[in-house]
Amino acid sequence: MRAFFYSRPDTLAAVVRAPPHSRYLAGGTSLIDLMKVDVERPEHVINIKALSLDAIEPLPDGGLRLGALTTNARTAAHPLVRTNYPILASALLAGASARIRHVATNGGNINQRTRCHYFYDTNAACNKRAPGTGCTARGTRNRVHAILGTSADCIAAFPSDMCVVLAMLDATINLYGPQGARRVHARDYHRLPGGTPWLETVLRPGELVLSIDLPPISFGSHYTYLKIRDLNVLALAVVSVAVGLEMDGDVIRHGRVALGGVASRPWYVPEVEGMLCGRRPSRSLFRDVADRLMQGAEVDRGNAAKRTLAPRVIQHALWQAATASPQPDGNLPVWSCSD
Ligand code: SF4
User: Fold this and answer.
1) pLDDT tens-digit profile of 29-46?
2) Which has fewest Cβ within 10 Å: 3, 22, 56, 86?
3) What keywords is this UniProt entry annotated with (predicted)?
4) 224-257: per-residue pLDDT in tens?
């Protein structure tokens, strides 16, 4: 690890006066790992944990505000999250280990970087880590990589479980920076790689996440977060699906689906809401929804199985939501297909 300057300011104004080549430190579960392997090389590390950004509080419109410094574990256990947004609790509990969830923060979860193994290997070409050097993952060992939203320059999958649910819920992220405060939809927060894979979010220099606003929405029991992974603990999604349905008897009044593990960012297709609206659950409807979500998928040498697996997981998740049978927390299916 390289030497760096360290500070721990206690006001927002002081934090956003960060000099160039700075990184904000909260839980540190991602940043410190990346500094140890020389992928992140900040000259200044600014610890933001003295800021009062760890509240979870109801909003006047009936929604809920999650502080950026609230840990993932505390968020998942909060009574208002468990009662009003159980799908968010499910996604948080499906991510990482209990030990990491007790340290990792909501702001850090949103800003975590890819787990592409070549990104961590400083001997490998990687456009995300070293712009213009190439993409080692293309045409090589890439079974965990993305098949949607990729580019010639990068096929890394976005790793967060929480962000898949934030995209499905249409949450809003509150930011603060040298130019003041602004709000960004969670669905617009992460960029597609295109020709600039090193630009992963819409964060401007010096900005940080203050909080996340969840809209007032309830799916009753008609939701699920279904995650397929390689191991029963500490594994990223091979495919994950967040579904929320508002039912009127046996008719879907409003439905949303978001995907994780298969795309360069949380994958949301607004057109799917129109496909589900006013329809009764059926095999043909759910197959059409899965086909629409997978439209444009491009496989590479090692990840073709995701193209086959994902539509099946999407349809299964839709039936779980339609029948009010959410995937039990901590009981996630394991995928046994080998490389
Ligand atoms: Fe780097 Fe992206 Fe290629 Fe992985 S997929 S090696 S992160 S450019």
Assistant:
1) 999 999 999 999 999 999
2) 3
3) FAD, Flavoprotein, Oxidoreductase
4) 999 998 876 667 899 999 999 999 999 999 999 9
Fold observed for domain 5-49: 3.30.43
Q: Can you read off the two tokens belonging to residue 328?
A: 């039990």
CA 21/CA 121 separation, integer angstroms: 21
* Ligand 1 centroid distance, CA of 146 (Å): 10
The residue nearest atom 2 of ligand 1, judged by CA position, is 154
Q: Which atom of ligand 1 is nearest to the CA of 156?
A: 5
pLDDT digit string, tens, across residues 102-112? 999 999 999 99
Collect all residues with Cβ–Cβ distance below 8 Å to 192 and sequence separation of at least 6: 149, 151, 264, 265
Residue 114 alpha carbon, nearest atom of ligand 1:
7
pTM exceeds 0.70: yes
Work out which ligand 1 atom sits closest to the CA atom of 138: 3
Select the CATH number that applies to the domain covering 223-335 from these four: 3.90.25.10, 3.40.50.720, 3.40.190.10, 3.30.390.50.
3.30.390.50
